Amino acid sequence: MQKSDDCMRKPRAKVTRAEVAFARREGKYWDDHSLAEAWTQTRAVEMGVELQVSTLLIHLEPRLAARLECAARKKRLSLETWLNRAVERELAHSSS
Fold it and tell me: Does this model's pTM top 0.85?
C-alpha cells in the first residue's frame, strides 16, 4: 500500500534563464536551417534509453470500453493516450 506522500508529484528541476535563452537561439537556428546543410559534419553514435513504464490492468464493462474506444478514435488518438490524458485532466481537476 502506498503512502499518500508517494502520490505527490516531485518538483521539477529549475531551468536557468541562460538555458532558456540557449534553447530559444537553438530553436530559431533550426527554424531557418536544415540538418542536410551540416550532414557531413555528423557522426553515428550509440545510445541507450531506459523507459520507466508501468502497466495497470483494469477490467471495464464492454459498453464502457466501446464508448472509450469511440471517443479516442474521434480524437485520432490511441486508447492509451486518450485515457492517460483524461485521467490527468480528472486528477488535476480533483486536486484543485
Answer: no
